[in-house]
Amino acid sequence: MRWWWSIPRPRIYTQDTQVGKYQVPVKRARFLTLGVARGGAHGKKEAGDYAFWTAVLKEPRWCDLNTGSLKKVRKMTARALAWLPAGDRFYRMAVEMITLDTAYRTLWEGILGQGANILYIRPATATEVHEWARTHLDDKRYLKVRKHP
Questions:
Q1: Could you tell me if 72 and 60 are in contact, meaning their C-beta atoms sit under 8 angstroms apart?
Q2: Which of 3, 20, 32, 105 could hold 97 in an S-S bridge, CB 3.0 to 4.6 Å?
């Protein structure tokens, strides 16, 4: 059983979204990958329905996110509450680099280029969501198990 599922595309798409001071196109897909969380790494305040989005980069960037080895990053997957715009989670990294974790500085400034390095955002695939879960174990444990509809 899976804790995420893909559903036919709802009408939450826009032509583009704001990430930092940049307008970024949102690509359409025939699906939207969702997950339901009872909470998150920061407690019950993170409960809700989440959509998973992938930002495809204009230029790949080399990054070491505490893995001990450099990796060429071509895209980044993140989750945001399902009712928020597609670019919301990527922009919130700017705030979280100050308030929570300096690793977000690497993501926001180094990889995303404060939004300038995002070519477009699209719904995440099942494979991308699985990869996100492997690197977000504290959040994954709060996600409810769902069957594919």
A1: yes
A2: 105
Q: 133-139: list long-range contacts, CB under 8 Å, 24+ apart.
A: 133/3, 133/4, 136/41, 138/40, 138/41, 139/37, 139/40, 139/41, 139/46, 139/79
Residue 76: exposure state from Cβ atoms within 10 A (0-12, 13-18, ≥19): buried
- Report which of 122, 88, 130, 131 is spatially closest to residue 4, judged by C-alpha positions: 130
What is the domain partition of the chain in residue ranges? Answer: 4-140
Nearest to 57 by CA among 38, 77, 42, 43: 77
pTM, two decimal places: 0.79
Q: Where are the beta strands (DSSP E) in 2-97?
A: 4-8, 16-19, 22-25, 31-37, 48-63, 71-81
Rounded mean pLDDT for each run of 10 residues along the chain, 149 residues in total: 49 73 87 72 77 90 66 86 87 78 76 88 87 77 53
Contact 39, 93 (CB under 8 A): no
